Amino acid sequence: MTGQRIEVRGTVQGVGFRPWVYRLAQRLGIRGRVRNDPRGVTIEAFGPEKLIKVFIEQLQVDMPASAHVLELGSHRIPDESPEGFVIESSDLRGDKSLSIPPDLATCPQCQAEVLDPANRRYGYAFTNCTACGPRFTIATGIPYDRAATTMRRFDMCPACQREYDDIEDRRFHAQPNACAKCGPTLSLTGLDGDALRATDPLKAAADLLRRGAIVAVKGLGGFHLACDAADGAAVRLLRARKHRDEKPFAVMTADLDAAKAVAEISAEEEALLTASERPIVIVRAKDRSSIAAEVSPETPFLGLFLPYAPLHHLLLEAVGRPLVMTSANVSNEPICRDNGEARRRLDGIADAILLHDRDIAMRCDDSVVRVIAGTPTVMRRSRGFVPRPIHLAKPVSRPVLACGAHLKNTFCIAMGDTAYFGPHVGDLETVAALEFFEEAIERMQTILSVRPEVIAHDLHPGYLSTRYARAQNDAILVGVQHHHAHVASVMAEHEVQGPVLGVAYDGTGFGEDGTSWGGEFLLCFADRFERLATFRPVRLAGGDLAMREVWRIGYALLHDAFDGQPPIDSLPLFADVPPQSIRIVSQMIERELNAPLARGVGRYFDGFGALALNRPLSTYEGQIAIAWDHVANDAVREAYPFALDRNETPMEVDLRPTVRAAVEDVVAGRSPADVSARFHNTLVNLTVEVVEGLLAEVGDVPVALTGGVFHNARLAGGVGQKLASKIRVLRHSEVPPGDGGIALGQALIADAFLGDKG
What we know:
Layout: E1 2-11, H1 17-28, E2 31-37, E3 40-47, H2 49-58, E4 68-77, E5 85-87, H3 108-114, H4 158-165, E6 186-189, H5 201-210, E7 215-218, E8 223-228, H6 232-242, E9 250-252, H7 256-262, E10 263-264, H8 267-274, E11 280-285, E12 301-305, H9 310-319, E13 323-327, H10 339-345, E14 352-356, E15 368-372, E16 375-380, E17 390-391, E18 400-402, E19 412-415, E20 418-421, H11 431-448, E21 454-458, H12 464-470, E22 476-480, H13 482-493, E23 500-510, E24 516-524, E25 529-535, E26 538-539, H14 545-548, H15 551-561, H16 579-591, E27 597-598, H17 601-613, H18 623-630, E28 643-645, E29 651-654, H19 656-667, H20 672-698, E30 703-706, H21 713-724, E31 729-730, H22 742-754
Parallel strand pairs: 2-5, 7-14, 9-12, 11-15, 18-21, 21-22, 23-30, 25-29, 30-31
Antiparallel strand pairs: 1-3, 1-4, 2-3, 6-14, 7-8, 8-13, 9-13, 10-11, 11-12, 15-16, 17-20, 18-19, 19-20, 23-24, 24-25, 26-27, 28-29
Helix pairs in contact: 5-9, 13-22, 15-16, 15-17, 15-19, 17-18, 17-20, 19-20, 20-21
């Protein structure tokens, strides 16, 4: 006979892990106890040594689907003789780690109950069990018990309590367990807060949606703005009210069959759509679908997702058609969370609000995923993924808060051998976004019971995330170069220590030489990097204004490639640009006035796209680059010339020959599809040539592809395919390639940089 204390770390609370352990122990005849604790789950098991060994082995297989074990350790303890095996109350003592799972999509059993007229939970919008339902967004502390959630004020009725107490019931210790008699309720109100006359609020909301109204719907991590996705007039009205001119909206369909009716869906995309995370998945739209063209203008792709809460299932069934479900906010502001906040901020946007009285502890926007070159890649990591831990190959020596980037912001907290991303915050360009950023950091720190000793931030002094970091007086501050952080995030995801040859392509990032970087080849270690090559810079006349008036970037490319004599008269792009504006931009470039140098590959996408597509303006970040990618002709294999200036230190990739050849094609009337394909092929070829040349100098090291430009499947796939047969290529999967992923890299770099230093 022997005793073993088994400590399990990871996502093991709120997923039915303890009941599963209990049933396993019963089956094997193991005696003892299991309990939640601040770091996960602890098991004290007693029995014959051989059976204990089998028990420990079985703990690592066939666990609940939503459980995620990062670490399982055991050591011998004195033998005891308990009568059986029990589930004990949670232990609140000791250091904490975050064992709460992300919110889990409605399981098939709960969905069936909600739609079954004979079931007592028929039509109940808050049905859940240990396999599904809200988790992170209702948690106020750990261990994850009902008292530490926003469900604490709802006392369970006798029927729900029996389920909760029955070890054989799938609702055993399901903390959000409730029914229509004892749990949260729905209401439909106007923006003034007055309840609308409706015996069935959900049915009344569905009637409004079918009549072309815009309804705000309270979900798990915040509110959505919903409208009929087949009604072009309703979508146009939503765009006008939300101030979102052209950026695509996400669409929720009732089920997978409905999704397949409007989009081409691969096996990999189907798996993502039906996964428990229920992210928005970028898929190719069918040519003749019922979705209004206004939903996703100028792109052949749709952002589709399936219902992930009973409320969604019921609403989609009642409406009978797909719904636009977009974040409830004015563009560039955080998603609404509280009922009062929704009434205040959505005034003038929504016609009505479908509310409930279960509070949201942490706002958490929808995640976005796309299959890129055969690999499912998280583009926005939030609901369904947060706070799933990321294991670190080397533990950090002290807790680190990494503040992330300015755009697409997420922060990260690293402690021990684990890192936790916070929810997606978005662009830190408003007071509301900054308040959400600060609120989310404070809540994560509270849940983890941690006060970071180190704060990592971007080098850009004007970023609000940098200003936040510098305002903290009780921690060591470490500034981290933007693209080094990009590469380190890939290293952390793949648990690689370095060196790594990083290829970091994005739009902009504060560089150490005074220019804006974004086309970088870096030899990276965790604590340092060497810049080996970069792109020749282009001047952004007007600074950030050039990102919106992209004709300015096109003009700058021409000015550089044609020695100050840009052939604008032969290009349609400039026909509608006022001559006075062109003269001013020309003078800004020549005199180097408010025309900073930028090396970002994203800016080259903007410039080439503007010139060939005749698109002078961009209404949202990445719009021209996305259109430039989508238009490319897959059958074209030719590429344009480019040059490598080895006289510069670091070596510069020179695209002036590419600009001249592309302009020649445009003037000759070659289609934008062909020009785009040649441009993309050129980028693939030059990336591979530069990488292979640098590897010959630095040795056989892995190559990491990172940065927002690698959201481009054509580029990522082309480069990866040409390199993968020769070397190890690291690409993102669970961590976004864009700015939403750099906080992880910042945390890794800050800890490595400090080492044992104070």
